[in-house]
Amino acid sequence: MEAELKEMLTDLDTLKRSLPDHPSLNSSIDKMQLRVEHLTNLAKSAPGRRLKVKDMSAEVVDSNPYSRLMALQRMGIVENYERIREFSVAIVGIGGVGSVAAEMLTRCGIGRLLLYDYDKVELANMNRLFFRPEQVGMTKTDAAVQTLSDINPDVVLESYTLNITTLQGFETFMSSLKNKTFCPSKQGIGVDLVLSCVDNYEARMVVNQACNELNQTWMESGVSEDAVSGHIQLLIPGETACFACAPPLVVASGVDERTLKREGVCAASLPTTMGVVAGLLVQNTLKYLLKFGYVSPYLGYNALKDYFPTMEMKPNPQCSNAACLERQNEYILAKPARDAAAKAKKEEASEPDSLKDKINVLDDSERNITLLQESETSLPKSATLSLIASITILMEGFVPSNPEVDSLADAQIRLSLAMEVLDLNLIKQRLDHLNAL
Ligand SMILES: [Zn+2]
């Protein structure tokens, strides 16, 4: 806003110089310049805008924007919360999921956000969270920067209004991910994580291509067209399946998804489902970056049944993506070094002053744990059947890109299914034993 008003002042000045012999017009231009200067002052002193904070403080005072977040450190959940300021996260697609994810990360005090979208804000977006009616017509990236910089001026925001599926867009996307100006000492490329929040497979395949080429970990998210289910997925090049390893039917069949759109019919969307998926995505992001808890490889959400399926997918040795195959080879070659690091970590974890031990000394009231009532612990007999059915539903839509994957994917699903059923049976046996005491 301030920049635009400044431009307007320059334009008025140019106009005045081009009309030296019109005193009455010059007088009107003077008045307009005064009004613009007044508006500039108003914009500068917009209420509620806080000053930047140099260091994250854990001090418990109402004026500290980070006190509630730093409490995670005091309670032993996160070892070093302030590290969040070192991280750069790229969000591709600033729609119903991406915009909410960007807001959550901004409120959490992330170091830097790179925002990519080519679309503009429309009134049809108002059923979702984040964008406001007065932002209609603005690009989604600029509108996001406007809101996010007000919420937390400490976050470095970069707005890229481009389409990553075009040649030029892809080049800018790649070079922006590689840029290490924000943290020159960082290993790898310039970002720590890429979040895909796009609404089409073509763009997902482009993010997949970029991340495979750059060996960059990313998370994919999606909400179904009927607005009642969604998922998040962690993709580590070479270690987990990439998006091309087991592509959805529409990608594997080579059909242009744009031809599948029906005239006058649009996808449904709910702020609730979008909010849940954005929440799951950012939760997984925080756990991944700050190294706490379990980082989900895949987490689904079925709103109609309130069911959250999980699974793991190994990479496909016959993947159609050449960069994916390169990363798979590197991952296999690095196994001895990985095993040694895991061994060293295990030994470190057994040290008496580890974070784990610190957490263990907290009693239940400190950890805010409530014991389940007896009735809440009983597992319905239908749970196992429901699990099998849900995993079957989950895998519908995934088809192998070649026959070899069929047996590979099938074996993985059977294995994870068997593991989950085994776990359920084990839990049930333990509960039965407890009930019998
Ligand atoms: Zn792959």
Automatic annotation (TrEMBL):
<dbReference type="GO" id="GO:0005829">
    <property type="term" value="C:cytosol"/>
</dbReference>
<keyword id="KW-0479">Metal-binding</keyword>
<dbReference type="GO" id="GO:0071566">
    <property type="term" value="F:UFM1 activating enzyme activity"/>
</dbReference>
<protein>
    <recommendedName>
        <fullName>Ubiquitin-like modifier-activating enzyme 5</fullName>
    </recommendedName>
</protein>
<dbReference type="GO" id="GO:0046872">
    <property type="term" value="F:metal ion binding"/>
</dbReference>
<dbReference type="GO" id="GO:0005524">
    <property type="term" value="F:ATP binding"/>
</dbReference>
<comment type="similarity">
    <text>Belongs to the ubiquitin-activating E1 family. UBA5 subfamily.</text>
</comment>
<dbReference type="InterPro" id="IPR000594">
    <property type="entry name" value="ThiF_NAD_FAD-bd"/>
</dbReference>
<dbReference type="InterPro" id="IPR045886">
    <property type="entry name" value="ThiF/MoeB/HesA"/>
</dbReference>
<dbReference type="Pfam" id="PF00899">
    <property type="entry name" value="ThiF"/>
</dbReference>
<feature type="domain" description="THIF-type NAD/FAD binding fold">
    <location>
        <begin position="66"/>
        <end position="320"/>
    </location>
</feature>
<dbReference type="GO" id="GO:0071569">
    <property type="term" value="P:protein ufmylation"/>
</dbReference>
<dbReference type="InterPro" id="IPR029752">
    <property type="entry name" value="D-isomer_DH_CS1"/>
</dbReference>
<dbReference type="InterPro" id="IPR035985">
    <property type="entry name" value="Ubiquitin-activating_enz"/>
</dbReference>
<keyword id="KW-0833">Ubl conjugation pathway</keyword>
<keyword id="KW-0067">ATP-binding</keyword>
<keyword id="KW-0862">Zinc</keyword>
<keyword id="KW-0547">Nucleotide-binding</keyword>
